[in-house]
Amino acid sequence: MGPLYHHLQTFINNLFIRGFHNGRLTIMIIPVRCFTCGKVIGQLYDEFNLRVQGGEDAKKVLDELGLERYCCRRMFLTHVDLIDQIMPYS
Ligand SMILES: [Zn+2]
What we know:
Helix content is 46%, strand content 16%. It is of the alpha+beta class.
């Protein structure tokens, strides 16, 4: 296998891939690190997802997980309704 394959495998290994049911089946691809600032965020995703689906406010959960920068918060917010809720001015 050449270097391109190696890079592709490294890229895939640095993603968390999750499927969950939220009215419909959705596949989430969460990077291990924030693309912008490099903060490690992948391991926080499961807790975020569980708490939001459990009815907690997404903004509050992000705050409590220590995700203060929008660049990191954005990585979690793939649903339009959540993006509207967290980033109303973006
Ligand atoms: Zn970030």
